[in-house]
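Hello again, I could really use a second opinion on something today. Take your time with it, there's no hurry, and the full record follows here:

___
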Amino acid sequence: MESLRHLDYPNFEVCVVAGPTPDGTMELLETWRDKIKILSCPVRNISISRNLGIGLAAGEIVAFIDDDAIPESDWLTRLNEAYREDHVVAAGGFAYNPDGISYQWRFGTVDRLGRADATWQGATPEFNFPFSASFPSLLGANSSARRAAVIEIGGFDETYEYYLDETDLCCRLVDRGGHVAQLDGACVHHKFRPSHIRNEARIIRDWYPIIKSKIYYSLVNNRGHHPLSVVFEDALSFIRQFVAQIDGAISAGLVNEAERVRLNEHVERAWRDGLSAGLAGHRRLWSRAEFEKLQKPFLSFKTFEPVGSRRVYCFVSAAAESGRADRWFAEIASVLSKLGHETHIFIAGETTTVDFESGVWVHRIAQLAEAPGIELPDFIRSRVSSLAEAVRQLSARKSIDAVFVPLWGWEAPVLREEGFSIVALADESLRSHADTLPAQGFESQALFNARLLAREAKCILARRPSVANDQEWQSFSIDPDRVIFVPDGMAGWDPSEDSKSMIEDVDAFIRQLQAALEGQEIARPAAVAV
């Protein structure tokens, strides 16, 4: 929910359909009651939930996202661009795995047996024609459609409790002559939270709806492409994959023998119900009246809107404790995010993950890369190089306006080589930082880096005046005209709730920062004599 406040699309509403889970979801949603539309679904059926959401919605386009997925700020903007073409009835984008680097889904087609081909390197609009053997398909956690087009075909088929529900919808839209647009971008990050379907280890625990959906889909969408013998053999092959997975999990000690018995019971029920529903061909769809009776007036969702253009800021700290962002870094990044900007923190981690925390994208990066051609101490080389590589990967798809690094750190030499605009952060003076300077002959290099950064950075953000008073130590000096002091007490700052004086302090800080980034003179508040 918090991530939706950071979307850059100017006018949208949020409809949440909560399932029958006694986990505090409804209690949390009550805190958003006046900001969003809420419905409950009494059964665990994703197609029913989506139909309820479609009915509740008042927008022309309905976008779907899962409760364990987080959209990037331009998600809705990119989706909406697809609908400039009148023939487009559905559109979706990429989904990242939890590491924030590899993809769960980019471009994919699905055939009439429900088999996905995700090897495509680009969109496949050439398969947008009725009764195509394969067609462009979208991932449910990142998909959208014209509300009118979905209602016209009866919405989601509620025979699908889980699995292939969105694929079936794409199939029916294409068979009606519509075009499904596969976008290069419009990204979400899918976290794969545990559910009644899969546990924390991502081991399937409820096979019945998956196998039943597979059999049912292969029959109702076949359109004469495959004889029944092929449908049955393909379903058997699909089931064998689950048998192999359970055998492996039992051998690894992750589950016990009782799971094999449960799987067999689920397979038997799925065959019976999937065949019965599929051969009968009776879909469970909604009428137009059922959708329209649920619709409520449009309720615009309030987001963090920047003054001027939205900017992308990155904070990089190799010295931060593994997995934890420096508190001061996090405070500044959080304030900038609440002012409508997109902020990223890059720190070291045991494994590579990307999470959204308090309005900030936190990249925890495993140490992998080595910086070529730049001399760094052994203890920090791999960590700095890995963080810099992660920033470079982000810059390949987003224009980064500035990178914030510690003044007394080793990040700047590597990032400066990439041409990023650098802002230095100094939470203490160099004199007080001296005992942390590395041994083994790198003391002079550390001082050289700090001097160079103090001169070349767009500005220096300082926590206290002592940062600028190092002129008498090691011949190190900072031009006080390039120092911007960060207001105290910014942690938890909220522009809609804080005192007028704090808002004014933060506003002055932001104006000074923006002036420095744009190469303008930093305006100073006038002195007041008492």
About this structure: The longest strand covers residues 342-348. The radius of gyration is 27 Å. The chain has two domains: 2-195+285-292, 312-517. The mean pLDDT is 87.
